[in-house]
């Protein structure tokens, strides 16, 4: 932010300030349990930022560890295809074998031959590390049993991607077998804390295992770190017992479900409530939180209302408005998001703006900053991975492009997925690469046209956002003594229903009363605004 201030441009600073009035006040986790799946919604300040569904039958999730069998070695790709039971063979590249793969293969052979009597590695003789630029055919051959972990789920025509450098994550630590190193998260900056953690982990680390201190380990007590490590060792022992009974193509250790994963990775003091509509899940979550955050389990609530949980907390509405091809934003701007096999494309549009009193350059900067914040949210929400190309509105001034780039990087800091952002090109395009571990979340939000045309339209619920944005623009533009909305009778009835109607909500928000006139001649989603003189307000 300092380098932005050196430009001494009050207008830029004002726009940046308006777009950065944040700090997360609260985080809510809403969980909807269904027969075949569990839907998870993460809200920050009431705004949906992550939405995931977990199929109860998904046996090939990221983090799952399998005992697989090499089906084919491809020397030209320096890789192999491994059968783990999936309909498509999984892909294993030489670079994903890990330096200690010889030790791992020996460990598996010893277990299956009965020579490895226990899970621990204190009596196990390690093999030399493999060469960095070696050939996969010198390490594994067809039919070789190999322990692998899924790093990327099957996407489109491709099978899962694997690594044999397995690791078991906990809340504070990550256990890395066949390793003797201690690593500290780069997000832990304090030198004294890094040194303390390194000393503690060196003292508790089992022989033959490495440990990685995650961000959650910062300021943790030694006994809490030891307890977390012991739970990871128990998982390794469980995996050992499963390997003993399996020859190949079997899951030997399952990654925790996504609910547990979110609690493990994200739970912090910002969580104000966790609401779930299934009693069994409710008890499991209470138990999990009690184990690592005693006293915080009181924020977990069981939803018993007749109103569906996602309806009550506004998740359904946000899903409808956030997952379409066109995504509305404030001030009449909107995004158009297209998905292709190779990449995702996002186009930023300013839309129709009544208040465009500023010059075009500042107007473009304002819209681009609004879009940057929404794009950061959309990437998390849809879990878009791979290459993302964003076409922002053209800006002439280099300081504006720099300000946009810096704010986009700032907004993306909350994203847990690894990502890289390049500065705007001379064509105004911003390229983003984001870790891709599973297919992007794609929810169909279009609906059949109620007019019976046979076409599909955007979710009708979007009309409320459109009307609210339109009223905001009219109020900010000024010069209109009265505002009259003409709409289809059904829409007009909905807007005026009850004492605290949508119209009343607009009055409290914008300070202007909107007269609503039902029009039989209008189509279902058609509307127009008029002033007190009966002149149509054009956008």
Describe the model.
- There is one protein chain.
- The chain folds into four domains: 89 residues, Nucleotidyltransferase, domain 5 (2-Layer Sandwich); 189 residues, OB fold (Dihydrolipoamide Acetyltransferase, E2P), CATH 2.40.50.140; 112 residues, Aminopeptidase; 78 residues, Hypothetical Protein Ychn, Chain: A (3-Layer(aba) Sandwich), CATH 3.40.1260.20.
- Helices cover 31% and strands 24% of the residues.
- The strands form six sheets. Strands 4, 5, 6, 7, 8 and 13 form a six-stranded antiparallel sheet that branches. Strands 16-17-18-19-21-20 form a six-stranded mixed sheet. The chain has a five-stranded mixed sheet with strand order 3-2-1-14-15, sandwiched between helices.
- Helix 2 packs parallel to helix 10 and helix 10 runs parallel beside helix 11.
**For the report, how would you describe the main beta sheet?**
6 strands, antiparallel
- Whole-number mean pLDDT: 85
Looking at the structure, what is the overall shape? elongated
* CATH topology call of the largest domain: OB fold (Dihydrolipoamide Acetyltransferase, E2P)
Category by helix and strand content: alpha+beta
> Cα distance, first to last residue?
35 Å
User: How many runs of DSSP E, i.e. beta strands?
Assistant: 26
pLDDT below 50 for ≥5 consecutive residues: which ranges?
A: 1-18
What level of helicity do the residues show?
A: 25-40%
Architecture of the largest domain, according to CATH?
Answer: Beta Barrel
Q: Assign the CATH class of the largest domain.
A: Mainly Beta
Please name the fourth-level CATH homologous superfamily of the largest domain: Nucleic acid-binding proteins
Tally of separate domains: 4
Q: Helical element count?
A: 14
Please state the CA-atom Rg, rounded to the nearest Å: 27 Å
**How big a fraction of the residues is strand?**
15-25%
